[in-house]
Hints:
Helices cover 32% and strands 33% of the residues. Strand 4 (80-86), helix 4 (95-109) and strand 5 form a beta-alpha-beta unit. The protein has a 7-stranded mixed β-sheet with strand order 1-2-3-4-5-7-6. Helix 1 runs antiparallel to helix 2. With 162 residues, the chain is of the alpha+beta class. The protein starts with a strand and ends in a 7-residue tail after the last strand.
Amino acid sequence: MRDVTIRRYKPEDAEGISGLYEKSVREIAIELYSPEEVEVWASYADEIEEIRHRLAEGLTLVAESGNTPVAFGQLKPVNHIAFLYTIKEYSRMGIATEIYKRLEDHALDKGAQYLTTDASRISKPLFERLGFQFECPVIEKRKGVELECFKMKKELGANKAV
């Protein structure tokens, strides 16, 4: 993992993570989502105070190179992966997997029996490799645009597949 460190989120990270989120959606999601879907999805990054509030909840981890955030993930509540994003230049380098492993370890420490997530078309293969099972498709509506994602679940315990 190129000179990357992973640490807990701090409130002053919100702007950088907002930019990371938007950049990730615009550069990676466009591979499997329409331009309209990407535009609506990326626009969530404009809601900086909501992002700051949401990231302060649960356990949010930030991966940075230098002082620049390149990936982040969040466990909220203790059995749900709410966010897992990486910018394109740092994708497929194991950073999201490392963040995920730390979130899973935290969930196990807190007694979680399983983890869930709502995976995008982009992240679904990663979650499958991490041992998650597809449960059902879900259509989320944002600003009148439908976005497809997938409810997924992973049983935790002695047989964890990470």
